[in-house]
Structure formats: C-alpha cells, structure tokens
C-alpha cells in the first residue's frame, strides 16, 4: 500500500500547508467583532469549479494510486509474470502528450481571446485523444491475439482493468471537451468558455501523468527508479 | 460542471445580491422532486436513508429472533440468516449512516451554517441524490433476484463471497451488491465535492475556519476522508466483480471447491482485505466525525456554555482524520498477514485513542460549570457520551494486537462496533433531528414522546450491547447462524441471548413513536419561532423559518464572532449570534492560556 | 436529578454485571496466560476511565442543572488542564500498549523445539496432519488434491511418507509440548479457533499461516471456525484432545496405519510396504 500512502502524504502536505495559513492557532473568542483581517483572500481568486476539479482529481488520483498499490503488492509474489509492453503504447503516449499540449495551447489562445486558434487547439486535442483511445484498443487486440487474455494471469487482468479505467476517465473528459468545443463554435469568447478550457487542460495533464506513472510501472522503469531512490537514501 | 457562480467569499457578500433566477422554482416538480435546493436534497436523502434504515432494522429483528430462539422460526435458515446479516451491515454502514450524516445533515447544515445560499454545484448535488437512490434500488432489488442477496457478510471477503457455498455467491446477489456499491460511490463523490468545496469557497464574509461550528468541521473532515477512502472500496469492488463475472484471479488463488478444482490461480485474498479495510477503517470515522461535531454543538447549545477547548477539538478532529488512514490493518491481526505489521498498527491504533479521549474530556468539561437544560437533544447527547465512551474503550481491547487475538471474530467485536458506530452515532442523529426539526419545519417535536423514545432507545440499546461483550469474551464466535452445542457455553448464555433479543425487539418497536412524532409534530407541534434553542450559529438566524431556497433573503449574513459565545459575561442575554456585531467579550476566561 | 441518578445506576449496573454475572472466559488450557493478564489489565484501566467519565457526567448533570438565575461560566479553554489530561491519557494508553506488544512478540516468535503440525480447513471440516517418525511434514500442493489425496501431499517427497492424516476427526496433542500449527485452506478463508487455547489465526487459501501454543491442561476442547466461510460455517467443528505423553504415544501408535504411505502408496514401493 506504499503508493496510496505516498499519494495521501502528498495530499496531507498540501492540506497542512493550506491549513497553516488559516489561523488554526488563533483564539477565535478573542477576535469577536472584526471581519477585516480575513486570511482567505487568495481563496476567493480561484473559482469554485477549479477547486472542485482539484478535489475531484484528488479522488481520481487516490483511485489510481490504489490500483497501483494493489498492482505492486501482487507483483511481489513469486509467480508474477509481466505483460509485454506492446510497441503501440509508445505511439499512444505520444498522442496523449499531443492532446495535453494542444489543450495547454488552447488555454493561452483562450486567454488571448483568439477564437480561431482556440478552435484549432480544441480540435487537435480531441483528435489526438481519440487516436490515443483507438491505439489503446489496438493494444488490447494485439495482446489478446498473442494469447495474453484477461483471465490468463493477474498481470494481464491488471493491465486490462487499469488501462480500461484510465480510458473511461479519458472518455469522460472527451464529453466535457465536446461540450467545450461546441460552446467554442457556437459563441464568441466568454469567461465560462475560458474556464472550461482551463479545466479541460488541467484534467488532461492529470490523466497524462497517471498514464505515465502506470507506463513506468509496466515497463519496469518505475521499479528501477524506486531502487535508485532507495540507494540514494541509504 | 456548473455555470452558476454563487457567492464566493468577500466580493458578493458585501453588497445585496440580486434576485437569482435559480432560487425561484417554477413548478412543484422542481421544488420538491428535481430540486437543486440543498435543503430539499437533504430531506430526500434523509427519507430514503430512513427507509433503508427501517428495512435494516427489520433484518436485525429477524437475526435476533434466530439467535435468541434458535429453530423456532423455520424460515430463517442458514442461507436467509447470512443474507440478513450481510444486508443489515452493508445497509446500516454505507446506505444509512454515511448517507444520513453527509447527504442528510451535510446538505442541510453546511450552506446554512457557513452562511451560503446553497451548495456551490447545485445541479451535481441534485444528481448525487438520484444516483444514491439508484444505488439503493439496485441493492434492494437483490432481495428479489434469483438466489437472493449476497450472504458473504458485509466485509465481502473473497474467495467465499463469489463461490457457491455462500448465498448469492454464484447468483445475482454479489453482483448486484458490488454494482450498487459502485453506483453509491459515484453518487457520493458528486455530493462530497459539493460539501468540501462549499466549505472552502462559499463561506460568508467573516466566517474564518476557526469561527466555524464543529458540526461543519466534522462533516467537512469526514467528507474529505470519504472522498479519499471510498475509491479503495471502488477498486476492490471492480476487481471482485471481474473475478466473479469474467473469471479473473485478482483475489482467487488456485483452490479446490467442494472437491472440484477451480480454473483460477495466483489471486491474493489478503489483497482484498487490505483494500476493503483501507476504506473500512476511515469509514468508521466518516460516521464518527460528523457525530462528534454535531454532539459538540448540541452540548454547547443546551448547556449554554462555549464548547470547552475549541481549538483542541478542531486539532483533534484533524488528527483523527489523518491517523485513521494508517490504522486499517488492525482489522487483520489474525488474517495471516505478515505478523510484524501488528506492532505498527497496534501502535497507531492506540495513538488515535489520545485525540479521541481529548474530545470526550472536552465534552464533559463543557457540561462542567454550565447551565444544563435537559432537553431531548441534550439527553441524546449525554447518552452519546456514555455509549461512545463504552464502545471506544472496548476498542482499546481490539486495537491492542495481542488482546485482539482471543476476541476477534467473536460477539465481543459485534458488541463493540455496534456500541461505538451503531448506537452512539444513531443517538446523535436522533438528538440532531430533535434539535434541528424546528428549523426544518417551524414546529417543535413533541417532548413527551421524545423522552419516551429517548429512554427506551438508550437504556434498551445499552441492555442489548453491554452484555453481548461477555458472550464474546466467553468465546462465542460472531456470524453463527446457530450456536448449537458448545461444551464451554453454559445454558445461561442462551437465556442471555433470548434477553438480548427481547430488548432488541422493544428498542426497534419504540422507533415507531419517533416516526409518529415526526409526522404528528409536522401538523400539531408547537410553533417554534426562528431560534427556539437561543443558539448562536447562523442557521438559527435566517430571516424566515423554514428557510426558503437561497436561505438569506436579500442580504448574506456577515460573521463577527465564533460559534460559541454563550453566557458571555456582561452581555444582556446568554447567547450572542455569530452575525451580531458589537459586543466584545472582556471575560477573564478569554485571557486564559 | 433522575437523569443523574440513572447515569449512576448505569455505572453501578455495569460494574456489578462485570463482577457477578456468570458469563466469563473459559478456563485457559494453553501457555497464553499472558494474554488473559493483558485483558485483565485493560479491563482495569478502561473500567476506571468509564466509571470516572460517566460519574463525572452524572455529577455535572446534577450540580449544574438549569435553575433560575444560573449562568454558565465563560471559559473557552484551559491549556493546563487539557495538557494534564492528554498526558495522563497517553500514559494510560502506553501502559496498555507496551505489555500488549511485548506479549505479541512472544506470540509470533515460535520456540525452536516446537513440533510442526498442519491444520487444513475446507468447507466445512477440519483435517490434520502430524509429521510421523521423522518429525517433519512433507511438501504439498493444491494441484495434487484428488479424492484419494485430499490434502494434496507430494508423494515424491520422502518426508511425506510417514505423515499421519486425520480427516474430519480429532487432533491429539501431548501436554506441555509446544506446537507450531501450519494453517492451510483448500477453498475459502477459515479461522482456527479454540477458546480454551486463546490462540486464533486465519487459514488463507494460497498461503500458509501459522500459530503456536503449548497445551497446559488435558481434556478435549472444541475447535470452531471463526471466519465466515459459507452457509456451513457454524457446523465446522473439530476437537483437540490434549493427553499425557504416555496416552498420546499410545494413540499415535494406533494411527500409524493411517500414514500417508498406507493411504496412498507411491508406485515404486507398492510391494515394499507391508500391510
């Protein structure tokens, strides 16, 4: 369960940092009658939807961290046999990176109120993400043809379930991206539109990160990385 | 996500808000059915949760009838018995307690107590309820599915949960159970995002974190924990569902079932237990923390005294919330996991007793030198202290690894967790309903019926669960459909079992007076006015009672003081509402520490 | 007044119930007296806290009940009092934890001289395997399980030849000899539980767990399953019979005929084994 605990400690650090700025040591009964010296000015700048998405990503992160925890716990048993990494996964990764970059560009286009650019970016993000998803399906097909079926052994099952769960999250993101694009085509630039683009970009970056971590574990680089860290510490 | 930006701190609060279209429901349907008003959603959540609670209560009667009078009721065979315990446990823990505290009280109280007009994502909030209802329907439908509901115990341990030796294992039961849990978690996540972000973003001007009532602190912390802990159950459910439906081997090693080898290999049953308890233990505190918060406010209000050691109370809540994520394996001391884990988890588990004890001390120190009004909510709060202390202390037995060895999986465990996370939080729920009913309906609940309900419930529940510890100490295992003959069990133990059953039937039956009171008082209760308990927190200061959608009329409240200015020396009444400007305490007590 | 009185009665009643009710643990029959001692100590500490907290609550309810003209005191906190209470609680918790961990260390450290035995669970019966003359258990594998090899022993392993199998019967143990029970399950999770021995551990399919104890009292004791294992869970019973060394040896001689070699002769010594 190291991965999930690591993830949660990260969240705990953020929470502790945030709480430390909220006057947890203050004595509220001595401060009656005042409203001016509120410590939460920076709060009001972030919009509720952004905070909401942040919290939601914490939930999604905990979901995948738990999968990865389970994966690595199972991996330690002696009969573990890794799934070979289909080459197409590298192409898929590239596609997902493209999607993320396109949305990042979209964010700045939206900020510049360049509607034409924004539409191109949204379209590019949508297409490359769809390419990612179809690539994932191809990878599944390839593996299945090579005899690595879902029920074959736990490693296969983990591969299909985790990539499936990740794909479903991407699919959910595509729905939001679709609605954002529809809005981008229908109307001229507006504050809600810019916000939606920002939220999409945030979501895409996060899912890219999740994918890279999982890929790292699949290829064994994650394990190697941890070993190096361990050696550095000792 | 949502398109209606609602009052965020500062900017909106400082000047009168224009009429927001959203707050004017256009038809009966949008007002009462597909309502986006957190208060209506709260009542919808509560009514569904109460209905599920009544089903679960009847199930507990059936189990107790079998345990108290084995063999008398022939329709409660082993199959049915295990289905009853499973559904009772799962319903009570997830679909009743979690839903009531977070979906019910969270929705009603958070916006009112922090001075917001509504949750920040009202549409998602509404969806949350309907998804929850769907989860409940799927769960209940398993009663009518072929093979009936799952009988795997609420812990759903594989491999037995998905094998044919367990009711529902190879039928629909376990599938519906897992699907329902997954739907529930999706629905909860929608609600949970609202509870957390509303507290973070929609507090009224002047409502710093340290001015929030402990109820909000408790629900806020619990929601956050639930958001992070429920994914563990979700992941476990997905994997178990794959094992059951597609024949994968996440949790099933190569085994021989009833003489037939199964085509599985390599699964790890312990992996499921880790995932389950990674959710399961925080879940205990997800139920307990809102109860802690609410009971703090009940005690403070009805003892007319500020909550003692408010800062400690907040720190303790946060400490408990954080620690509860590193104690999960204390449910697995005898599970065959690496025995050296025992040292770590026993230590963390017993450390968590310290902040919990601090909370108890502060409750009783709030009573000390107070001005105690023995109203019905206060009675329930006192009963909470007694049952929670009792159940918490037996937790020290079970958390201390070696003491757990003889006691685990016995009736001692059943008695312990019913006392601490069954009886104690439910007493708080009742107290809270008697307390906030006047705000919700504008009328008081009947006092005499309330006291009858209180005494029978409290003393009855204590009579059920206190002696049960000793059955476990004797060695009677839990989850036995029929104890049968055990050489070490004297005949008197069967008498005790029958006594417990009778007490359970009485306690169950007296809940009808509560249900009756709820409906009767709606019509015939004494009109309450806006603030019958003379409380300080914001929900009692709304311009109208019951508050309409939007809560605050034209202008949002501004907060000038913490939530516990009771009996301030020199003030002309014994409470100062949070939105009352002016008077500053010059009490010598204020200078303490 | 009545409320305070009832709170006091709850304390008195609970303590009285604890002291005089006939329901208490069964007399111990193993070396785990330490566990009992730790429980007794925990009862003392927690009992004191329970009595103190509820009596104090009762006192407050009586002494500070609402009367006309009474006003509560305004004291937001008292750091000194809170610090004291925290410290005392921490000491009390440590007083329970330290001996608990100490005994746990013993519980998981098997003495060198312990005899290995095997306890196998399946829906819904107990089977046992004793090591025979060589004092060692042979290897086993789930995939070897068949109608005439119910525990899946490996017949190629010479150590398994003299192993004694007891299916669904009584487990006999000599008094005063430490035993390390290796726990294995062929189907679902079970739990080996004998109330008189105080020890308990899950049998998990796919792995071998263990528990050790030394029987200290002769007699026969019931084995219960303490982990829900399907509809037959309560019927999954067995018996441990603890005997004096002489009686045990006599019993063991009678069981040699049920050694694995007798039950399932390996092909190559079909002839060699006299019957």
Describe this structure in words.
The complex is a heterotrimer of chains A (234), B (593) and C (275). Chain A is built from seven helices and no strands. Chain A has helices at 2-20, 48-75, 88-112, 115-145, 154-186, 191-219, 221-233. With 593 residues, chain B is mainly alpha-helical. Helix content of chain B is 60%, strand content 1%. Chain B has 15 helices and two strands. Chain B has helices at residues 28-33, 38-68, 78-114, 122-141, 173-201, 214-245, 269-302, 310-323, 341-351, 353-367, 376-399, 401-407, 411-441, 447-474, 491-524; strands at 256-257, 260-261. In chain B, a hairpin with a 2-residue loop joins strand 1 and strand 2 (260-261). With 275 residues, chain C is α+β, with helices and mostly antiparallel strands. Chain C folds into two domains: 2-65 and 78-108, no CATH class; 115-266, Immunoglobulin-like. Chain C contains five helices and ten strands. In chain C, a hairpin with a 2-residue loop joins strand 1 (115-122) and strand 2 (125-130). In chain C, helix 1 (2-20) packs antiparallel against helix 2 (33-63) and helix 2 (33-63) runs antiparallel to helix 3 (79-108). Classes of the chains: A mainly alpha (234), B mainly alpha (593), C alpha+beta (275). The interface between B and C is large, with 118 and 100 residues. Chain B: It is found in: Cell membrane; Membrane.
How do the strands and helices of this protein lay out in sequence?
The complex is a heterotrimer of chains A (234), B (593) and C (275).
Chain A: H1 2-20, H2 48-75, H3 88-112, H4 115-145, H5 154-186, H6 191-219, H7 221-233
Helix pairs in contact in A: 1-2, 2-5, 2-6, 3-4, 3-6, 4-5, 5-6
Chain B: H1 28-33, H2 38-68, H3 78-114, H4 122-141, H5 173-201, H6 214-245, E1 256-257, E2 260-261, H7 269-302, H8 310-323, H9 341-351, H10 353-367, H11 376-399, H12 401-407, H13 411-441, H14 447-474, H15 491-524
Helix pairs in contact in B: 2-3, 2-4, 2-15, 3-5, 3-6, 3-7, 3-13, 4-5, 5-6, 6-7, 6-8, 7-10, 7-11, 7-13, 8-10, 10-11, 11-13, 11-14, 13-14, 14-15
Chain C: H1 2-20, H2 33-63, H3 79-108, E1 115-122, E2 125-130, E3 164-167, E4 170-174, E5 179-185, E6 190-193, E7 200-203, E8 209-213, E9 219-225, E10 238-243, H4 245-255, H5 260-263
Parallel strand pairs in C: 1-5, 4-10
Antiparallel strand pairs in C: 1-2, 2-3, 5-8, 6-7, 6-9, 9-10
Pfam families (chain C): COX2
GO cellular component, one term (chain C): membrane
Family (chain C): Belongs to the cytochrome c oxidase subunit 2 family.
